[in-house]
Design a protein that fits this description.
Blueprint: H1 5-19, H2 27-34, H3 38-50, E1 54-57, E2 63-66, H4 75-83, H5 107-123, H6 127-131, H7 135-141, H8 145-151
Antiparallel strand pairs: 1-2
Helix pairs in contact: 1-3, 1-4, 2-3, 4-5
Length: 153
């Protein structure tokens, strides 16, 4: 299994916002620190906002921040928000499936069970579990005054 780049960026963005919860962060700051394309990040931020994970503010002093406490943002919910539209295997998409084994293959049932186990495990984890007390993560993601000023130039 492999998560999409968008899902990975979504988790990086949420962790960045969590580490910097005391301020509004800007997309270019996230992109610079998380080694991400601002164009890809814009799509991710839009989805995170639409799904209620973050609040966005336009304008000169705009940016984004978490829309709810980290303890109320489940990793499983985030992953489902980004991964649910993509079928895990060809046979999971009735519209495009061309597999001749459909209806006779037990592999799909095993995959469905494994995916549900994966998402159930992710449902047990919150953004707070990933961020709070993670000094190494804070060292990488925390915006210091000098780092914030450098990203403006």
């Amino acid at each position: 299994m492999r998560l999409t780049i968008r899902t990975n960026l979504a988790m990086r963005t949420l962790m960045f916002c969590g580490v910097n919860a005391d301020r509004v962060v800007r997309k270019h700051e996230i992109a610079a620190v998380c080694n991400a394309s601002e164009n890809h990040l814009a799509l991710v931020v839009n989805t995170l906002s639409q799904r209620g994970f973050i609040d966005t503010q336009r304008g000169r002093s705009g940016g984004l921040r978490l829309n709810r406490p980290m303890s109320e943002i489940g990793v499983g919910e985030v992953l489902r928000s980004f991964e649910s539209g993509m079928p895990f295997a060809e046979c999971f998409d009735a519209a495009t499936n061309t597999c001749p084994l459909i209806g006779r293959c037990r592999f799909r049932a095993v995959l469905e069970s494994a995916l549900e186990a994966f998402f159930s495990a992710m449902d047990e984890i919150t953004l707070a579990d990933l961020v709070v007390g993670n000094v190494a993560l804070e060292h990488v993601l925390a915006l210091t005054d000098s780092r914030a000023m450098a990203s403006c130039h």
